[in-house]
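Hi U.,

Before I forget, here's the chain from the pilot set. I'm dumping it here mostly so it's searchable later in email.
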Amino acid sequence: MSHKTREQLALEAGELLKKTACGNKPLTARDRLAIPLQEMPQQDPVTRRGNMNEVALGYSPEQAKLESMRCLQCKNAPCIEGCPVRINIPAFLASAALGNFQESIDAIKKNSLLPSVCGRVCPQEVQCQLNCTVGKSLKDVNKAVSIGRVERFVADLKREKGMKETPAVKPETGRKVAVIGSGPAGITVAADVRREGHSVTMFEAFHKPGGVMMYGIPEFRLPKAIVQREIDTLRRMGVEVKTSFVIGRTRKLMDLIEKDGFDAVFVGTGAGLPKFMNIEGENLVGVYSANEYLTRVNLMRAYDREHADTPIANSRKVAVLGGGNVAMDAARSAVRLGAEEVHLVYRRTEAEMPARIEEVAHAKEEGVIFHILQNAKRVIGDSNSRVCAMECLRYELGAPDESGRRRPVEIKGSEFTMEVDTVVVAIGNDSNPLIKQTTPQMTTTKRGNIIVDANGKTSIDGVYAGGDIVLGAATVILAMGQGRTAAAAINRQLAETGKK
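Structure:
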């Protein structure tokens, strides 16, 4: 990657824009396919290793216009089919191509409440952009129209101008809805239900609302000010937000209905139970779940060693186990915390990694050392029960497993030792078990995911669920899609039962 400055990329885009848009002739499909993919401006890799600032700097107006002009405006709009909340993608790109950025964001906000978030962290390359005709025409999905980058640009433009919009709220109905969890699903439900005039109270277990967007995704990928802005919007709409309130401990779910008078409840508690490998040495000092590690870094700002109330230990050599986005986030956070070496250990090859291609590339640029077809066998401690090394095994790929990826098979006798003082386990999460444990009438899967119908309704009347607690660890936009479905069902239920 060239790593040209934002100014250089804007200048190049401006020059190309003049050439492309000259004359009154409308652009043909061939003209559009000839426009090069616009590179995302970003911090220099060496510089960003020493700060927590956002890596991707966002398109300039010239780049946003030029990238939008690449859209072929297909009549069948296959990109919409890949969008979990069915944004009218051709419409918002058409407006952006003309420089009508207000019209563009208005088109997005008809379906998505969190465009600044989704434009940054959603895996567009396996959703809307996977179906893009431009990518297919150029025989490279990586050359599809950068839908997410344009979405981010038009969403950020209003925020950067300091404009605050509060969605309209209908007259009060006297009905009460509880939203458990303040992540993407919960935010979506709270907004959609409140718009109908129902009273909404959102319960959050942590001391700050925002869910995984606050505690799980690092500042260098998703600035917390963006998430806080969405919470502020909910409060302006009249949503009450109660933090440090753990449903199942502070109050049981059924108490909300039977004692507190809530007419409906939405459960969006996420997948917050970390998985471990169950190997020797996982209880040693210096072994973290990725959840704990990232929560300390993100929510509790452990990187700010002078001011953080909950600092994190200084690590010299860090090993991160896993190949997903969470593993990349942990490894890249360790780099910024000052580790001399950060090793990412993954038991398949890079081709099977579930992490976004962009996140893998950024991790490599920042100096993370990749160890593919390897995995930990045991963690080794010193006389003080602190991590000092990790014994690993080498693997080869066998037949495909249930995920469709080739199964890793260990190579007998391939053990070797890696010197590390910190191990971060990032191999996935299970659903939060607390509500299941304290609400026995709730029907769940063996893994603890809540079972819902097509409308998001659980086995309990008046109780709905969505997001990771239903899907397992998924994406922001998928959680939002489930939240939107559940909110519509809640609004129908309350309309049918009439006012109190």
